[in-house]
Design brief:
Helix Hairpins; D-amino Acid Aminotransferase, Chain A, domain 1; five-stranded mixed beta sheet; four-stranded antiparallel beta sheet; 10 helices; binds nicotinamide-adenine-dinucleotide
């Protein structure tokens, strides 16, 4: 990037932001993406590289500084008590191990990780008072989301009453199982309606329905993976958090594994890269989370992502990939 002059970089940055904003609108608001995720990711990372080379060109409205997309009208707004963040992502094992090395250096000791599947759905927040489900929302732009409590109540995997009368906020992923997605698109096609591009967009479209009967008919499900203020329950690792969530009655993803060695991480990636087609839900990678919750507090977050976790995204599936050539003119 150093060989790009500031003037050229500035022009290119404007172009990339314009394209990325358009794609974000289609993906987050209209639930109808027009490009594959890896095309978006490539443009996004090019923007990061240019902004890293010329930090004076970073602006608050850059997609690199914001989570998600605009809030949909029609739903009540919900300001999250603590922002709902995205995840930093890498596309090679080298970058993944570099993340591990950096974390080890910052913390001063070797890290153990909760290695989880990266579910291709959309993030939700669920609030319980004395064990009763009282409010649920989308991530929205990370700071403000949409209140979709009534829609979430229709999802069978979301307990309306927990096994213990705790007052907690939990977060996780809402997704549409592959089978439900195939059935839904088949029905839509038969009715001459536009089909959804993938289960993720179908889940997002189904969850943000003003008519909750439509949401109820879509067979959505959830995996919960995050607990706010885990120390209140004497928990000190992410592995313990997952176990506790399950004991309270949440559906957690059972494939998670505790790993600390490089070769264990590699084996986990290889296993699920092969197994992903056999899973009943879509995944687009794996997530490494520092297992020790003290590390989360120690390293904190950027405006957009936690510094204690990283997503490794699988390379695009060649068969599914529609090769699109994007011609950038600077
Ligand atoms: P992301 O989906 O890459 O990763 C962050 C999200 O992963 C979290 O918010 C959470 O919802 C989810 N997640 C799934 N499993 C998880 C787990 N086990 N632990 C923690 N989190 C988990 O980031 P994003 O900010 O939601 O979206 C950006 C991505 O969306 C892009 O990288 C791109 O792939 C896609 N996108 C595509 C288009 C397009 O036009 N195709 C447009 C915009 C965004």
């Amino acid at each position: 990037m150093k060989d790009v002059t500031q003037q050229t970089a500035a022009k290119r940055i404007l172009l990339l932001r314009k394209e990325l904003d358009r794609w974000r609108q289609q993906y987050y608001v209209e639930d109808q993406p027009t490009v594959e995720d890896h095309v978006y990711d490539q443009a996004y990372h090019e923007l990061i590289d240019l902004e890293t080379a010329y930090p004076e060109l970073i602006t608050d409205d850059s997609p690199t500084q914001r989570v998600g997309g605009p809030i949909l009208s029609g739903f009540e707004k919900k300001t999250h008590e603590t922002p709902m963040l995205s995840l930093g992502d890498v596309f090679s094992k080298e970058e993944l191990f570099a993340f591990d090395q950096r974390l080890e250096k910052t913390v001063g000791q070797k890290q153990s990780y909760s290695c989880e599947l990266k579910i291709d759905g959309l993030a939700i927040s669920l609030i319980y008072k004395d064990g009763r489900f009282v409010e649920g929302s989308t991530r929205g732009n990370g700071v403000v989301g949409e209140n979709i409590t009534e829609n979430l109540k229709t999802i069978k995997a979301i307990p309306l009453r927990l096994k213990k009368a705790v007052s907690v906020e939990v977060r996780g992923e809402c997704y549409m199982p592959k089978k439900a997605f195939a059935e839904l698109n088949k029905k839509r096609e038969a009715k001459g309606k536009p089909v959804f591009a993938n289960p993720r967009n179908a889940a997002a479209g189904s969850l943000r329905q003003l008519d909750t009967r439509i949401t109820a008919s879509r067979q959505l499900s959830t995996f919960i993976y995050y607990l706010m203020e885990p120390q209140r329950y004497g928990l000190s690792t992410q592995t313990q958090v997952l176990k506790q969530l399950s004991e309270w009655g949440f559906k957690i993803n059972k494939e998670s594994q505790n790993v600390s060695q490089k070769d264990e991480i590699e084996r986990f990636i290889e296993k699920y890269q092969k197994k992903r087609t056999q899973l009943s839900y879509d995944i687009d990678g794996i997530v490494l989370k520092a297992d020790d919750l003290k590390v989360h507090q120690l390293v904190g977050n950027t405006v957009k992502v936690p510094r204690w976790a990283i997503a490794y995204k699988f390379p695009p599936d060649e068969q599914e990939t529609i090769v699109r050539q994007i011609l950038w003119t600077v």
